[in-house]
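Dear colleague,

Thank you for sharing your sequence with our group. We've completed the structure prediction you requested, and as agreed, I am returning the results in plain text so they can be pasted directly into your records. Please verify that the sequence below matches your submission; if there's any discrepancy, let me know and we will rerun it promptly.
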Amino acid sequence: MKIQVFPSILASDFGKLSEEAKRLEDAGADAIHVDIMDGHFVPNLTLGPKAVAAINRSTDLFLDVHIMVYNPYDFVERFVEAGADRITFHFEATEDVETVIDYIKKCNVKVGLAFNPETSYEMVTKFIGKTDLILMMTVNPGFGGQKFMPEVLEKVTRLKRDIDQLGEKVDIQVDGGIDEKTGKLAKDAGANIFVAGTSLYKQDDLASAISRLKSV
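Please find the predicted structure tokens below.
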């Protein structure tokens, strides 16, 4: 299984987003993961559509935009216009998940659905095959640098099994506390896309760090 690494630009220098995007492209990243937080669904507050547009102008990489916001439907169009190639929103952030999925698809971008660690796996199964990607959060969303939650791996294993049994083509992404050690555990469980921030940016050689994470 080929592993893809999507560095989280949230862990980079916010004052140099354009340069950081180009740096990630040069370092061999498969895509750029952009975390959007509204200060309500999660306590932190981060980037908006203008920042996403600036990143988009600076790179040809796929922009994987993860919106941690309530009422995600209201944000879709703005981030599509800003250059998002996929929008991933949270199951827990809306009572009308399928409407948001359908709207994102109508905007001709890929769609992902994220689940918080405490959310029951039974909530995941009904959406297999309805999205391009399922993101299993391996920390509670909202802050970088948190410790990986190994209890989520069981859900990843079940998700991979169910995707295969249904014959669907769905990427499994993990996000939170991902480094070479936890990445190996996530890969063994069935994940194929790693979002990593702190563990990559603290390395002196970003290209080498990305390469090693792809090779776990």
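Summary note from our side: The beta strands are 4-7, 31-37, 62-68, 86-90, 110-115, 133-137, 171-175, 193-196.

Kind regards,
the structure core
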